[in-house]
Amino acid sequence: MNKVLDVRKLSKSFGGLAAVTAVNLHLNKGELVGLIGPNGAGKTTCFNLLTGIYEPDKGSISLHRDGQEYSLEKRKPHEICRLGVGRTFQNIRLFRDLTVLDNVRTAMNRTVKYGLFSALFHIGSYHREERELIEKSMELLKIFELDGKALELAKNLPYGEQRHLEIARALATEPALLLLDEPAAGMNPAETAQLTRTIEWIRKRFDLTILLIEHDMSLVMKICERVYVLDYGMLIAEGTPEVIKNNPRVVKAYLGEVAYA
Amino acid sequence: MKEDFYMGQFLQQIFNSISIGSIYALIALGYTMVYGIIRLINFAHASVYMLGAYIGYFAMTYFGLGFVPSILLAMLICMIVGVLIEKIAYKPLRNAARIAVLITAIGVSMFIEYGMMFLVKANVRSYPPMSGFLAKSFSVGAMTITAQQILILAVTIILMVVLQIVVKTTRTGKAMRAVSQDREAAELMGIDVNSTISFTFAIGSALAGAAGVLVGVYYNSINPLMGMLPGLKAFVAAVFGGIGLIPGAVLGGYFIGAVEVFVAGYGNSMYRDAVVFAILILVLILKPAGLLGKSGREKV
Amino acid sequence: MKYIFALLVFAIGQLLVVTGYLNDYLFSTLTTLCINIILAVSLNLITGFTGQFSLGHAGFMSIGGYVCALISMRIPTVPGFLLGVLTGALAAAFVGFIVGLPTLRLKGDYLAIATLGMAEIIRIIFLNLKITNGAAGLNGIPQFVDWMWLSLFTFSSIILISNFIRSAHGRACVSIREDEIAAESIGIHATKYKVTAFVIGAFFAGIAGGLYASYFYFLRPTLFGFSRSIDILVIVVLGGIGSLSGSVIAAILLALISTYLQAFPELRMVFYAVALVVIMIVRPQGLMGSKELSLDLLKGFGRKRQRGGS
Fold it and tell me: Residue C172 has what pLDDT?
């Protein structure tokens, strides 16, 4: 089994409030794993810890890639992205006043080789690389059927397309590990079904390992191979969707929440 | 013997710094309360201070009013001006981008300062000389303490005590603290957020107005741009002590006052202001929450 | 394209100078205008495009001005002047780097105040240095600025900054303005780009300072105080944060208004003040918002393109 992500005893408190306590999770290459739990359980906090927005109080986060092991705990978000972790956000964080094309292009900055001088004078490889950026971005946008709207401002897209754009932008960074934070939030069943297919498709196409936070249980049940369940910042269950569905602790944690189908 | 002299000098500097520190503290309180309640650096605050000085000047020179009526008048008018500024310029932008409100605040301060300059001309005016008690000075050992310095300290203490009482015991005071912590929750609890904000501006502006009159009496000369530098330094004081925290403003005011007096007295008076700004930069970089503050966090 | 437009403007200007239509008074106004344009587009890069609120732009201008003056006063030739302007700009950029690195981690109001503090410290230093002659300032700086140099530097500034914005680096800066956390999540090193924009902005402010010194032939610390920084900010805000053509248009507009209000300097500031407040309340995006006027207006009509595309 080749692990891509190995998280041990991850803990984080804010003031006196323990947001995440001693969480252990791992992802193997190519897996699609779910992270669920009631609101406030600490799922997004976990994502923020994984992507360097918060620094953990305790614990370790290791990313394995191309035979190398990288510890992520003390790294900055942009470093972690460059090591191969991409993410989307619970409340969409697109660059609203930029075009669809720009949102994706900017995510490919890592591959840009021309320097400041070329940027100021538009010489050297500037023109060639800019062309390549546009080509690569359009290819990516085509997958999500957004190529036709390349010059639209991101804020003018309908909600579902904005979510897709955010995923496309994350993919533009060529991640090995993709963290999706409630990608189906606010979607109707038809859109959710389409999203499910899209996620399956990109996993194969881009050889991704995916960790997915979701409230929509139909999505989780359908595509997640394994599921971790958080409650009050602690891991209360782990297993296949079938197993955790019937886990009494999990059911209890969700009591009072909207029941899943 | 020499030690007595240096000790005397040192104590004198301390006493001088108390006077200037009181002024900075009074102004800083306005900055800190407004920042605490609506997260705005009220650039216009310094011009309200200047207005207070001019009102005191006109009250004493043209209406022959004594010190107490003059300072009360200045406080009253500045209170009204402060509330007006908030209603006209800041309230419409309450949900706008921070940079927009900041620019507006700069605009308002410029409007008042240059408007004043246009109206009363840029030349320096002098407060009428004080008579009676206020003209006296006392010798204590090697130090000289003027009655005016005592006055500044006395007025400042009185105002701060009043402020404390208002903030800690009255409903509006409690409302102020609630709105500072969470505006939406306060609103849901039935607090009239608009009046509370106006009230905050009113108190802060009144204090600034008082500071203006005190400065007029102590330093004697006033001019339309007199607010810029003290305003900036008072803001540094508020940040140093912990922006948004009332004790922080007081602490910061006296600290900056002391720094100024001692740098000028023992070091190089030319670089006095630069030192104050350097303190600002250092605080912002090392501990932006200030001496008494706790750091906040953005929810992601 | 844009180079042809620039050449055209230069040619017209040169013609006016040679035939004497552009007399000293008008040229003086034109110089002030061009210097303000350079200052405004460079501040716009920092504040408008990268979203870092800087209230200390005049500080960088003063560094450029003083360094240029000190050099060109010792080497009063055209190469000396050019050396002065470039060295001044590099000095300003260097200070921008030193200042930017620690302070650009601050956000919003805090950054604004920190930059204000920095500019004040710079001003106080110049006020007290012997070499800059303190409050009396420097006099008799050799005047080398003519229409050729003025237009060259002005157009270069606009074109280079515009180029930068339409590059990957520039887009990174804009993404930071839009959402810094999201930008970091896609691999953009926020601090690096903020400092880059800041340094470039400071560089061109330094150029403006050098030009100022080499035309108006005297420098005093009071010229570079808070009100100068505000002057520039008004132009940027009026024109539209995030629009270079907006900055140019606003600079022209305000130059006209300044000329009319010349007899009443306080009124001019009062007008600026009212303008700031009114714009912020009524139309915070300024005249042009974040759109650009395409320089193809020579083709008959001004096309407004969406910001962000190239």
Answer: 96
Between chain A and chain B, the number of residue pairs with CB atoms below 8 A apart is: 5
Number of domains in chain C: 1
Please tell me the distance from the alpha carbon of residue A53 to that of residue A80, in angstroms, as a whole number.
Answer: 10
Structure tokens at A38: 């009631």
CB contact (8 A) between residue C269 and residue B114:
yes
Collect the ranges in chain C with pLDDT lower than 70: 1, 294-310
Scan for tokens 């309640």, then name that residue: B37
Reduced to 3 states, what is the DSSP secondary structure of residue A229? strand
Taking the C-alpha atoms of residue C204 and residue C213, their distance in angstroms, rounded to an integer, is 14
Distances (CA, A) of B112 to B50, B88, B102, B105, B208: 9, 14, 16, 11, 14
**How far, in Å, CA of A21 to CA of A59, rounded?**
9
C172 assigned to some structural domain:
yes
Residue carrying the six token digits 């050799």: C142
Q: What is the CATH number of the domain that holds C226?
A: 1.10.3470
Cβ contact, residue pair A133, C168, below 8 Å: yes
Neighbours of chain C (3+ CB pairs under 8 A): A, B
Instruction: Give the amino acid at C265.
Output: P
Digit-coded pLDDT (tens) for C234-248: 899 889 888 999 999
- Shortest Cα distance, chain C CAs vs residue A165, angstroms: 13
Domain extent at residue C259: 2-305
Phi, psi of B61 (to 5 degrees): -80, -45
CA A213/CA A224 separation, integer angstroms: 10
Unique residue bearing structure tokens 């560089």:
C203
Q: What is the pLDDT of residues B208-220, one digit of tens each?
A: 999 999 999 888 8
In whole angstroms, give the CA distance from residue A203 to residue B297: 34
Question: To the nearest whole angstrom, how far is the Cα of C260 from the nearest Cα of chain A?
Answer: 37
The answer to whether C243 and C306 have CB atoms below 8 angstroms apart is no
Residues 28-57 of B with CB under 8 A from C: 39-41
Q: How far is A60 from chain B (nearest CA, A)?
A: 21
Of C223, C169, C227, the C-alpha closest to C200 is C169
CB atoms within 10 A of CB B233: 28
**Complete domains list, chain A, with CATH:** 1-84+175-261 (3.40.50.300), 95-173 (no CATH)
Q: Is C105 exposed, middle or buried (0-12, 13-18, 19+ CB in 10 A)?
A: middle
Judging by beta carbons within 10 Å of its beta carbon (0-12, 13-18, 19+), is residue B57 exposed, middle or buried? buried
Length of chain A: 261
Using 50 as the pLDDT threshold, list the residues of chain A that sit under it.
256, 261
Q: Do C230 and B106 touch (CB under 8 A)?
A: yes
Q: Where are the beta strands (DSSP E) in chain B?
A: 125-126, 137-140, 143-146, 221-222
Q: Do B297 and A14 lie within an 8 Å CB cutoff?
A: yes
**Residues of chain C contacting A102 with CB distance shorter than 8 Å:** 171, 174-175, 308-309
* Segment B167-200, tens digit of pLDDT: 888 888 888 888 888 888 888 888 888 999 999 9
Our CA-based measurement puts residue A30 at a distance from the nearest CA of chain C, in whole angstroms, of 21
